Recover the amino acids of this structure.
């Protein structure tokens, strides 16, 4: 964000725009005004504002429509929008927040209140932008050391063989790498393209399970890979399939009872490929919340609470059915892919 904030004010009443412009200019804020929602979108396309003051009742394109459109686009979805409107019913205010607004001020307004709210939301927006930039820049700093640790561990094993200490380091490194991949995907999923390709499920699962063996060993877990169908293929981007399988395997390992067995079963049901990942665990508190963002079933177990949410979003994207079933002390995550997907 520039040192001098840039605000777009959208209202079809010229006198309102005049008052806003005079007050905001006095606080060292640059203001651009328009009386049209359609014109506002053109202005935003040329230069993204730090904040938008948006009227609701406007001809051709109302404020709700403008807000929803902006929130649907990656480039503009994070712009804070404050509604300014003569509509003062609770229903209209709820509708404004549901459309994506961060605040709602009724007309006639007190300009001092408007200025106070604008400054607050500009500050919050600036903090969010700085944090997002910090996270993005941090990935480059994190990935290189992780790669070096992974390579060094491999060479260490080749030269000196495996031992308990190396395995512990490997487990910690794999956990960090999985967290890195989840956060990276969460940040990039809306702007990066993921072209699909045909993937052999058996080969893919054998490779992913092999990576998780060190983590399984820390809890003395074993696994059974059962393929009830041959040459099962699905169409998806490998990175997105990795996020699905890795998160479900990681979840199974975290919540499995010591010295138990994780079952991974691949079957064909009519025109669907089914993958079941099952583990012995204690009863889930609330299955309905499992895929919610930042939800963690057990706060004592390490994790960020984003893995299963990413799984659900990818499944929704590819129309993959995912269900969780509990029975006789076993939790089963069931994925169903269309064979021609």
């Amino acid at each position: 964000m520039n040192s001098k904030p840039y605000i777009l004010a959208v209202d079809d009443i010229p006198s309102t725009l005049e008052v806003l412009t005079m007050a905001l200019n006095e606080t060292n804020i640059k203001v651009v005004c328009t009386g049209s929602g359609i014109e506002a979108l053109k202005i935003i396309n040329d230069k993204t504002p730090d904040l938008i003051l948006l009227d609701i009742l406007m001809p051709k394109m109302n404020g709700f429509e403008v807000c929803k459109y902006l929130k649907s686009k990656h480039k503009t979805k994070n712009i804070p929008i404050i509604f300014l409107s003569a509509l003062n019913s609770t229903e209209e205010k709820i509708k404004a927040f549901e459309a994506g607004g961060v605040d709602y001020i009724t007309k006639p307004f007190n300009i001092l209140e408007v200025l106070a709210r604008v400054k607050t939301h500009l500050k919050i927006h600036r903090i969010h932008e700085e944090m997002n930039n910090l996270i993005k820049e941090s990935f480059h700093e994190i990935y290189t050391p992780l790669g070096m640790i992974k390579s060094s561990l491999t060479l260490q094993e080749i030269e000196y063989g495996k031992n308990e200490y190396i395995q512990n380091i490997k487990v910690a490194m794999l956990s960090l790498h999985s967290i890195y991949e989840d956060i990276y995907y969460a940040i990039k999923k809306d702007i990066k393209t993921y072209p699909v390709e045909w993937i052999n499920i058996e080969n893919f699962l054998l490779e992913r399970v092999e990576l998780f063996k060190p983590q399984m060993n820390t809890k003395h877990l074993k696994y059974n890979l059962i393929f009830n169908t041959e040459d099962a293929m699905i169409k998806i981007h490998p990175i997105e399939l990795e996020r699905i399988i890795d998160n479900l395997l990681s979840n199974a390992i975290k919540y499995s009872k010591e010295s138990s067995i994780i079952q991974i079963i691949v079957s064909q049901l009519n025109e669907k490929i089914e993958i079941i990942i099952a583990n012995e665990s204690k009863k889930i508190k609330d299955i309905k919340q499992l895929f919610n963002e930042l939800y963690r079933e057990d706060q004592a177990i390490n994790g960020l609470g984003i893995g299963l949410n990413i799984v659900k979003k990818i499944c929704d994207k590819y129309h993959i059915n995912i269900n969780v079933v509990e029975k006789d002390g076993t939790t089963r995550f069931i994925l169903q892919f269309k064979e021609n997907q």
